Amino acid sequence: MSFISYLINGISLGSVYAIIALGYTMVYGIAKMLNFAHGDVIMVGGFTIFFAVSMQGLPTFAGVLLAVVLCTLLGITIEYIAYRPLRQAASSLAVLITAIGVSYFLQNIALLIFGANTKAFTSVVTIPAVKLANDQIIISGETIVTIISCIIIMIGLSLFINRTKAGQAMLAVSEDKGAAQLMGINVNGTISLTFAIGSALAAIAGMLLCSAYPSLTPYTGSMPGIKAFVAAVFGGIGSIPGALIGGIVLGIIEILGKAYISSQMADAIVFMVLIVVLLVKPTGILGRKIQEKV
Amino acid sequence: MAALLEVKNLGISFGGLRAVDDFEISIKKGQLYGLIGPNGAGKTTIFNLLTGVYKPSEGVISLEGNNITGLKTIEINKAGIARTFQNIRLFKDLSVLDNVKAGLHNHYKYSTLEGILRLPNYFKMEKAMNEKAMELLKVFELEGEADYLAANLPYGKQRKLEIARALATEPRLLLLDEPAAGMNPNETMELMDTIRFVRDNFDMTILLIEHDMKLVSGICEELTVLNFGRILSQGKTSRVLNDPQVITAYLGE
Amino acid sequence: MKKFKLGKNMKDNIITYGIVIIAYVIMQILVSTGHVSSLMQGLLVPLCVYVILAVSLNLTVGILGELSLGHAGFMCVGAFAGAFFSKCMKNVITFGLLRFVLAILIGALAAGIIGFLIGMPVLRLRGDYLAIVTLAFGEIIKNVINVLYIGKDSRGLHFSTKDSLSLGLEPEGDVIINGAQGITGTPKDSTFTIGVILIILTLIIVLNLIHSRDGRAIMSIRDNLIAAESIGINITKYKLMAFSISAALAGVAGVLYSHNLNSLMATPKNFGYNMSIMILVFVVLGGIGNIRGSIISAVVLTLLPELLRGLSNYRMLIYSIVLIVMMLFNWSPKLIDLRKRYSLKRLLKRTREVQ
């Protein structure tokens, strides 16, 4: 029975990874860059909710809304100031290092404002846990909300990309920026929109992550961020269903690894998976191969 | 006399697209051979097949009687084929001299340890490399810019440096991918002289892709015209250029 | 002309060595005349560690042109391998300097081998993927060391990944690596002088490598992989060479680091990816590919926060801002154009610089 509990926990953690991975995968697909600071946007989302709800006493809903709005703006701003000027840069290393700089910047701003002490995050989820099989399996409210959120987000995003003009523009830009521009698509606007969506999702992921693991520090976002990137690579970077599959598989591997192998080695196991995937199938499960033109 | 390069039934498909089909060519030692055709005809793809960038779906490539089909790029270079690129690929943050010295890599050797410890062999070999590289740069009148960064050379000189670098690998066959692209008529004339000079003085066989008809008709002894990945016409330059099929392909109906 | 060129590299290198030696002499004079606080004296060995790390990472990032975020992992391997050796040999080799030299060699070898083993599969990847995989490896190394228990008794070495009890040591046996508690009681062999000697050795290796046939091959791969292949350069060989030498030198830095501490633990702070990123900051601020710059920026960025105590809270924040601004300033096409317009003369001068 405990196996099923672990599995459900794994799916729940994996759902959070999947939501974060969406941000990575969309940005990678469209801007061809690894947004290293994405994980720290999660942390900003967490702190915003913490500040609004626990410190200022605002209602939960308002706190979450505030976090989403703030993170969206943050994502757009980061892209505008730090990444856009480097889009045509000769070296792809440049934008990656800049992204690392942004990640550090966000962590240290949070450190200055909130200090290094771990904050106890009050879960925003109020629905009770569900007990199954004579109380042998307990599914927490957080788990239920996380999994449902993930499903809603996936469906919503697929509809958005396939059914709306803006979504189609995203596909076009990720395929070929130059051609998209010639077709009258506002490339800069589309990239901004991608960052906006990715960052809004990061805020939601921050809420879910902090509710399930209620401790908050300026570094809260970095490890889940990196693991979500692993998930995105695992599923095939640039692919939205890939992010879902990668996230969930990774979440399950991590929880089962913690339970059955070694809790200290759980991170190492996750990273091993990344390495194996990249070596066996560098494009991930659902990725496509891109070859450099000679 | 046997051909230096002998290609038979060469073909490659990308997905469903047949990029090159049933390509054949035979180039004799010391020949200046032209490969022409409209954009997208598959010319550069053939260069990529000859140099191992792509693996052919079928066909045989032999150089001096040795089968080199399917070898890796560096093995093909060692076997004796060097090339230049349509979109110039220099080592842009290295000096002009070092670009050529990089080309000499496999001909002047000393070990890593000799390099790090600066043993006598290091100085001996570096001196020899410098001399050889300067000699090559002189051929292309680049000796004055030896210490410049490659990226800072004007366009025409970058093309020449690429040829010098290719020659440094001591090939038997030199492939030039649009050497005159972006050059003005004067520079092109000069380039024609240089190509002839290279052929005569380095005992070189040259296969070149070019759009500039003046250059092609001026220096190539034989031509192959490619259209939609297939050979449209092949043979002596004057005959090929008067082939009605070729004229149609170039000028339209 | 050729003579002149060789001379120029030589001159450049001599300036770099000169800076290190002069800085060392000045520091020694200041220390012996009592002008250096004990806090600053405590920083001298870490300073050498950072300089070696920055120079060696620059070999990967600046010369090979690949971003590695796992440099702290190689340092970790070197630190533990060296400390393990020294602790085992504490009573066998009593001549401290010899033991330390051997420890440095072992640390370098261990890190170099790990670098080689990791590099072999992952150097096929490029750019972002390579960065994330090296980061992953760095974290794995740290994790593995945290669950590693090694003990020694009269029957030999014992290994475990569970706890020190399951080593099954004899009563008089000695736990050498104690999982997350790491290694305690490493002999304190590191000194500022040895640190500076190691910096100079690192510089000799890196600078001489750059200005040699192999260095040219490595840089040609950085500048254009496809062209490098087309002129017969063995990509895998040279990537691996640069990567393993870089790792081995990080291992040297690790040995120096571990022999400066009484107890060595692998924590996210010293061997995590934050450390790797900090080293990267040194490299970027000193100028990617500029070895002398790496030395200067490692020294300045380590000393500055200590000199300006009031700023220490803002230290990392300032680093991050400087990092972003530097990258934008150096790489943004628009800003590059702007700079070209306003400093043509400087640009002309720069064209003659090879490095």
Can you give keywords for this protein?
heterotrimer, A: 294 residues, mainly alpha, two-stranded antiparallel sheet, 72% helix, 3% strand, C: 355 residues, three-stranded antiparallel β-sheet, two-stranded antiparallel ribbon, disordered N terminus
Detail the topology: elements first, then pairings.
The complex is a heterotrimer of chains A (294), B (253) and C (355).
Chain A: H1 2-31, H2 38-55, H3 60-83, H4 92-114, E1 119-120, E2 130-132, E3 137-139, H5 141-163, H6 165-175, H7 177-182, H8 187-212, E4 215-216, H9 222-235, H10 240-260, H11 266-280
Helix pairs in contact in A: 1-5, 1-8, 1-9, 1-10, 2-3, 2-4, 2-8, 2-9, 3-8, 5-6, 5-8, 6-8, 9-10, 9-11, 10-11
Chain B: E1 5-14, E2 17-27, E3 32-36, H1 43-50, E4 58-63, E5 66-67, H2 73-79, E6 81-83, H3 96-103, H4 112-116, H5 120-139, H6 155-168, E7 173-177, H7 185-201, E8 205-209, H8 213-219, E9 222-227, E10 230-236, H9 237-241, H10 244-251
Parallel strand pairs in B: 3-8, 3-9, 6-7, 7-8
Antiparallel strand pairs in B: 1-2, 1-4, 4-5, 9-10
Chain C: H1 2-32, H2 38-64, H3 71-88, H4 96-122, H5 127-146, E1 149-153, E2 156-160, E3 174-178, E4 183-184, H6 192-210, H7 213-223, H8 225-230, H9 235-258, E5 263-264, H10 268-271, H11 273-286, H12 291-307, H13 315-331, H14 333-342, H15 344-350
Antiparallel strand pairs in C: 1-2, 1-3, 4-5
Helix pairs in contact in C: 1-6, 2-6, 2-9, 2-11, 2-12, 3-4, 3-5, 3-9, 4-9, 7-9, 11-12
Overview of this protein structure:
The complex is a heterotrimer of chains A (about 290), B (about 250) and C (about 350). Chain A is about 70% helix and about 5% strand. Chain A has eleven helices and four strands. In chain A, helix 9 packs across helix 10 (about 240-260). Chain A is globular. The model of chain A has no long low-confidence stretch (mean pLDDT about 90). The termini of chain B are far apart. The relative contact order of chain B is 0.18. In chain C, the strands form two sheets. Chain C has a three-stranded antiparallel sheet with strand order 2-1-3, with helices on one face. A two-stranded antiparallel sheet of chain C has the order 4-5. Helices cover about 70% and strands about 5% of the residues of chain C. By secondary structure, chain C is mainly alpha-helical. In chain C, helix 3 (about 70-90) packs antiparallel against helix 4. The longest helix of chain C is centred in the first third of the chain and has 31 residues, at about 1-30. Chain C starts with a helix and ends in a 5-residue tail after the last helix. Chains in contact: A-C, B-C. At the A-C interface, helix 4, helix 9 and helix 11 of A face helix 5, helix 11, helix 13 and helix 14 of C.
